[in-house]
Amino acid sequence: MKRRLSEAQEFEIMKLVLDKFLWLGFGIMAYGLYQMYNATIQIGLAWIIVGAVILFLFSWIIVKQYEIIR
Q: What distance lies between CA 69 and its chain's CA centroid?
């Protein structure tokens, strides 16, 4: 038998996941900045764009899931 979570419990779990995705996106963007310094600007910019896309996609999922109104 599966146990159902309350909305508050579900939101707490989503906050934990959000934190991990934010760190992942920030880490990728920081790596892109490092690559811009050590390699070429194009390679670093590509990594920064990938990090931004990850952050955008997760933000879109959060807004879609919880119907957050701006």
A: 19
**Integer CA distances (angstroms), 7 to 29, 46, 52, 66, in order:** 32, 38, 29, 10
The amino acid sitting at 38 is N
pLDDT digits (tens, 9 = 90+) for 5-30: 777 777 787 778 777 878 888 888 88
Q: How far apart are CA 34 and CA 54, in angstroms?
A: 18
Q: Is 51 exposed, middle or buried (0-12, 13-18, 19+ CB in 10 A)?
A: buried
pTM value > 0.85: no
